[in-house]
Amino acid sequence: MPSLTVNERPLAFDMDPQTPLLWALRDAANLTGTKYGCGVGDCGACMVLVDGEAKMSCQMSLAEAEGRVVTTIEGLSPDRSHPVQQALVAQQAIQCGFCTPGIAIAAAALLARNADPSPEDIRAAVPNLCRCGVYPRLVAAIQQAGRVLRRLETIDPVPAPGTSAEDAARAVPAIKAT
User: Fold this and answer.
1) Does residue 68 surpass a pLDDT of 90?
2) Which PROSITE patterns does the entry mention (predicted)?
C-alpha cells in the first residue's frame, strides 16, 4: 500500500502502485484541483510539487511517489493567500481557470528557487499550456509574486471562498509598492 505525505497529511493509498499519482489524488484523496489535461505530460494541468519540485502527476506512479512529500494546489495555500495565487488574480491572468492550478504550482516551485525570475526563466520553468492565451499576464503575475516574496510590494488579499457575491464583485486587489 503506497504511503506518502499529501498537503502535510500522511496518506496510504489502497490502490495499485502503478496508478498515476493524478488519479490517486483526484479519486482517492478527493483533491480535484489537480486537473487531468492531456495524460501524456505535455499540458501541465496536473502539476503538483513533489519534494518541492514541480512534477506532472499524470506521469508519476504511486510507487514513484512512495515516501515523498506532495503538495497540490489545495495545499499550496488553503486560503488562497500564496503570492502566486494573489498575483494571478491581481494581474487578471486567469480566464477559464482550468490550467491555473498547474501554473500556480509551477510558478511557486520557480519562485522558491528564484524570487526574481526573468521572462525567459518563467517561460522555461512554467511550460504549462493555456488555451486562453494569457501568457503575457502570467509572466507579469509571476514577476509580481516574486516582488511580493522579496517584500518589494504587497497585494491586498482577494476575498476568501464563501465571501458574498456582492463583496467579491467589489474586491479588486490593490497593488502597493513598499
Assistant:
1) yes
2) 2FE2S_FER_1 (PS00197), 2FE2S_FER_2 (PS51085)
